[in-house]
Design goal:
- This protein is an all-alpha fold and 309 residues long.
- The protein has a domain at 214-309: Serine Threonine Protein Phosphatase 5, Tetratricopeptide repeat, CATH 1.25.40.
- It is built from 15 helices and no strands.
- The longest helix has 21 residues, at 108-128.
- The N and C termini lie far apart (59 Å).
Length: 309
């Protein structure tokens, strides 16, 4: 009995660690289940009933559930897709993502069963697609956060970063900086963020898409540029791109990006745009300035706060 209790405590510690790295769902603006949403769901469900082997329709149904934060329904759909086509990396990746969200929506004890299948789904997605950066970013974070007996490993996390670097040197520099920051290797972390900045200094805004696969990588790059006070025009491009391509799968609320954009414009002396994006941020999340400090601090650098007045 004592051994079982110790294992449960370790699992709870694991979930607590993972939860600490994920922003609660209450911080996100969840779309209203409008008549348009209901009509789309009805249409897709009807089409799937008439064509049960049409996996694209089923995937579209899972996607629309996910877009409207209907995670229980999305989980059921992606679970069916994984069984129907176990060699499709997208199905495994989306299934793992929903399991990750579900783990954060329930209590810590209820979260425990989600951990192993979530990790397995992302590992399968990465194995099926050797150039898929998003699955490797997630795995890097999981390997670093999970305890050893659940598959955590700093060496695996580092190996995954190296895989990312082989696919995209820019993504690799961002991933290495991110991982080192998590390990409190602040000086080394800054070196890799500066390396990423040196890389983009030779690029235009439009050419970044040749090197960045993840929408959230635009946010991470913009954040590095903001706090190191470099290339404001590229930082603006990064945050603007993130906002334009934002979806429910992102790991942070849209208000964060608007507030970051306000900070960049404030540094650049564009008060009008700074005020506009700041007001946009607080309209979505009134406590955004404090929330940034709690959930999205950056290394040991002070966060620039937009003045209230």
């Amino acid at each position: 009995m004592e051994k079982t209790q110790r294992i449960i405590y370790l699992l709870l510690g694991c979930i607590t660690s993972l939860s600490a790295q994920r922003i609660p769902q209450s911080y996100f603006t969840i779309p209203e289940l409008s008549s348009s949403y209901l009509s789309t769901v009805d249409s897709l469900e009807s089409r799937h009933q008439n064509h049960p082997n049409d996996l694209q329709t089923l995937e579209n149904l899972g996607d629309i559930y996910g877009a409207y934060y209907q995670w229980d329904e999305a989980q059921k759909v992606y679970a069916r897709l994984v069984k129907k086509d176990p060699e499709n990396f997208r199905f495994h990746f989306k299934y793992g993502g929903v399991l990750g969200v579900k783990a954060l929506e329930v209590s810590r004890i209820q979260s425990v069963p989600f951990v192993r299948p979530m990790k397995a789904a992302f590992e399968k997605a990465a194995a099926l697609n050797t150039t898929h950066i998003e699955s490797r970013w997630v795995l890097m974070e999981l390997y670093e956060a999970l305890p050893f007996f659940l598959g955590g490993s700093s060496s695996k996390a580092q190996q995954t970063v190296e895989e990312i670097e082989q696919i995209s040197p820019l993504e690799g520099a961002l991933a290495q900086g991110f991982l080192l920051a998590k390990q409190n290797e602040i000086t080394k972390s800054k070196e890799f963020y500066k390396k990423a900045i040196d890389w983009v200094s030779q690029e235009s805004c439009s050419s970044l898409s040749n090197y960045l696969q993840r929408n959230q990588s635009y946010y991470e790059l913009g954040k590095a540029l903001l706090f190191l006070n470099q290339l404001p025009e590229i930082a603006i491009c990064c945050f603007s791109f993130f906002i334009e391509n934002y979806s429910s799968k992102e790991g942070l609320p849209l208000a964060f990006a608007h507030q970051r954009l306000a900070q960049v414009y404030d540094q650049a002396g564009n008060v009008k745009q700074a005020i506009w994006h700041h007001q946009k941020a607080i309209s979505q999340l009134p406590s955004v300035q404090d929330d940034l400090r709690e959930w999205d601090g950056f290394l040991d650098l002070e966060i620039v706060s937009f003045p209230e007045n």
